[in-house]
Structure formats: structure tokens, C-alpha cells
Amino acid sequence: MIDENELAAEFEEHRPYLHAMAFRLLGSHADADDAVQEAWLRLTRAGGDGIEELRGWLTTVTVRICLDVLRKHGVRREQPLELEVGLLPGDPLGSDPEQEVLLAESVALALYVVMDVLTPAERVAFVLHDVFEVPFDGVAAILGRSTAATKMLASRARGRLRTGVAAADAAGREVVEAFFEAVGRGDVAGLLTVLAPDVELSGHAPGGAFTVRGAREVATQATMFRNPRARLHPALVDGVPGALITFGGRPVTVVAFTITDGVVTAIRAMTDPERLGRIVPAWVD
Prior knowledge:
This protein is an alpha+beta fold. The protein folds into two domains: 4-167, PhyR, sigma-like (SL) domain (Butyryl-CoA Dehydrogenase, subunit A, domain 3), CATH 1.20.140; 170-279, Nuclear Transport Factor 2, Chain: A, CATH 3.10.450. It is 54% helix and 19% strand. It has eleven helices and six strands. The protein has helices spanning 4-26, 29-46, 54-73, 97-111, 120-131, 136-143, 147-167, 170-185, 188-192, 215-224, 273-279; strands at 195-205, 208-213, 230-237, 240-247, 250-260, 263-271. A six-stranded mixed β-sheet has the order 2-1-6-5-4-3, with helices on both faces. Helix 4 (97-111) crosses helix 11 and helix 5 packs across helix 7 (147-167). The longest helix has 23 residues, at 4-26. The radius of gyration is 21 Å and the shape is elongated. The termini are far apart.
């Protein structure tokens, strides 16, 4: 039998990965902690004997624990407001490694937050394959289904997520669409019709944090950076209408809008292509 201290050390190497996976499946850090702890208890009972590849074994065990939770309690909506996207002016990004991990989890979930429309099996197929890049045959083995059936589950999940995002907050979405249409035309006057007089744009770019206040100032700033080659992907960001902007197939900016009485009162943005490239699901193109 493998020495327990050695086994614990190996398990700790995989804990961040297991927690991130369980969090995406269960939508709660507390539930993810419980699932990972249960995986550790099962590992100690097994003693490590006969386990050829520990990461794969732990992945299977943790996912099956999460499946049991989802089937017992039902799939619950994520809580994207547990963390905002970290865009408050003056909050430096990247200064705290733990906060960096939590931010990545929050943004990745907040972008496609309509996960409660998925069945447990669809959620597992989508999260494992599209977020964690587990091959379909590996996901199929965990779910006890054929590879073809697992591919169908993931495909259905993508479709349901896209539909859910498109249907969310239709009125707010119309305001966001009007905003981006005006940006595309370079239409400052058009932007002024959808921006509150005291609107505030805040965010973080590679050059640092920034804040712009006032409708005309925000409209001018927005039209300065329009690019006809950019592609817009509607998204929910922290539960509010937003968008992921890609350029040449690469995610470059995520934007969230606060809308009150039919006008935009606040805009938060993050421009960080390197980070977004790591956390945006692979099916976004």
C-alpha cells in the first residue's frame, strides 16, 4: 500500500484541478469542496493500490460524486455574483494568485450562466469536454455511455446554452444590440439615445484600470475603438446582458452592461486576450 503521506502529497497536486471542475459542475465553492473531500476519502480507502493514473482516477471519482449531487438535488443555477468580474477601478488584476483563479472561474461561468437548463449528463459532457478538454471517450467512460451518445450530449448542451443566452433579458439585450450597432456605425448621436447622462464605463486593459464618466465621453471612447473585423458574441456576464468580443478567432474583450429604465447606466469591460484565451470555452469561435 502507498504511504498515506505520499498519497496525500500527490492528491494535493490535483486538488486545484478537481475543485475547479467540481465548481463548474455544481456552481458552488462549498459543494465543490465537499466533493473533492469525498474524493480524497475514497482515495484513502482505496489506498492507491492498482491506480495506474491518479489524475484520471480522481477525475472519474469526483465527476461521479458531482453527478450524484446533481441527480439528488437537481441542477441549480450558478451564482455568478459570488464574484464580480473583478473590474472595479483601482483593483489591480493578477496581484493575488488565488484571486486570479477565482476570477477565471467566475468569468468562465458568468459568460455562459444558463447552465441550469442542462441535464446532469449534458452538464458533465459539456464541462469536461469543452472546458477541461477531456476526450469524448474519457467522458463517455465516466458517464457509462457510448462516445457517440456523449458527443450528442455535449452538442445538445451547446445548443441549449446558446438558446438560453439569446433568450435572457430580451429587453436589455435590445439595448445592448442598439449600443453595438451605433458603435459599429461610429454614431455618437445614436449612442447618446441608449446611454444614461451619468453613465460610467470602468474596466481594466493591459495598460491598467480606467474609468470614463458621462454619456458623451463614453460614446466618444466607444466609437474610437470600433473595428469592423471584430465579432460579437452575446453573453451573460455576472447575470446581466453583455458580450464577448473576438478578433481573428481570439477572445479579446468581455463587456457587461447595467441597464435601468431602458438605458445603460454602467458598463464594465475587461480587455485581456491572453487571460480570456485561457478561460473562454473552446466552442466559442
